[in-house]
Amino acid sequence: MSAGDWNIVLNALNIGFLQTLRLFFATLIGAIPLGLLIMFARRSSFKPLSWLMQSLSWIIRGSPLMIQLLIIYYGPGLAFDWHPWGGGEAGRFSAAAVAFIINYAFYFAEIYRGGIASIPQGQEEAGLVLGMTRTQIFFKVKLLQMVKAILPPMSNEVITLVKDTSLSRIISLQEIVWAGQKFLKGSEGVRASILPLLFTGIYYLVFNGLLTLLLAKIEKRLSYFQVR
Amino acid sequence: MKKWISLILAALLALSMTMAFAEGDLDYVKGKGVLVVGITDFAPMDYLENGEWIGFDADMAKAFAESLGLKVEFVEIDWDNKLLELDNKSIDCIWNGMTLRTEITDVTSCSNAYADNAQVVVVPKAVADQYQNAESVAKLQFAVEAGSAGEDEAKAYGFSYTPVPAQSDAVMEVKAGSSDAAIIDALMAAAVVGEGTSYEDLTYTIALNSEKYGVAFRQGSELAELLNAFFASAWKDGSMQAIAETYGVSAAIIPQE
Asked: Which residue of A has its CA nearest to B75?
């Protein structure tokens, strides 16, 4: 491919990658707090709520995200003739974001639960003896310890999320893999080539490299205290 | 808590009812003012140039929408999902060199045929001489687009084949040598393989069938008849022929009346 061709390809890949990044950040911003809510509901002493969350968690974590994307985007229109998303790129993005947020929130909730469980019961008892409420104990004693404990598994999920965004091409969201794939047959005047599709891998590698550095830095900053 | 849940359910139900008993398809599309056209990147029918969708189908779609006072929006879809997209109303029509097949015509309202097409066999140029009839190609391993007319032909002839996501992937398979041959649309083959194209060392040999292109709307939509009338007037004033000329597909276009 000529330099001019690469210009066109990189431009298309950049637009696709921007969509990938938007989906990535939207998912994190939505799923991190939602996961916390799900975790509380899951640990609730009100049993029906806890059971509901366990069933949902089984459905969401037990079925492929690709199928969930299809159901969320096409389901309402086909089942109820209700069209919340619209046909354009924005609607597809919203549907993908909702599917990713729900899916990742349930994974995050399990990680949070593990983090909470790793904190010794004695701390809760000590807090109660000192006259703290359970809410105070959670936010003032447990939360930061939990954050530290869950950082490694969360890093894992976050890195997986970057790559999982490519699943959204099933509902024709034009993220970077879609952008690369269209050059397989030649597009925008560029002759057919597999190189643009392979080159999308570089984008993922670079972005995940930066993320890994950032996460390692956060982990280091939290290492001033020990969780026991 | 319970009250809230039943309230929300009732609201959802009411919402879906009002939607279900809504107006006809023409009113629906006019109501939103945009004709959403489902396409794939498929030269010479729909393709991108300088960020704009052009091609024989794209230009005709623009003119049709304009004749109805509608804006036009092109949405790239996964060809496998085209009927799903149509029923979901995320697109209003499938207008992308679509072969009129019973699987489509049975469940949608289609326009009249506007172009001739065939399914042709794409092979490497070096071995093309050996594969000039249906018997000789029968022993090849084929790649075809999943859910395409090409797949139907491969099935009908009893060829051994692998379904791939797009016609372009099928051609790529032949180029890469992972399949011996591909079955794709003649109009596309003319544009993407052979001398002066992306795949100079490939060519196409026999036609397995002959077929026609049409545009699909939702079942019962008034838009199909309106498009037929539009085709007739565009043929009469020569604008359809002029667009065909621009994209080099004149030979394939079917006269409209």
From this structure: A88
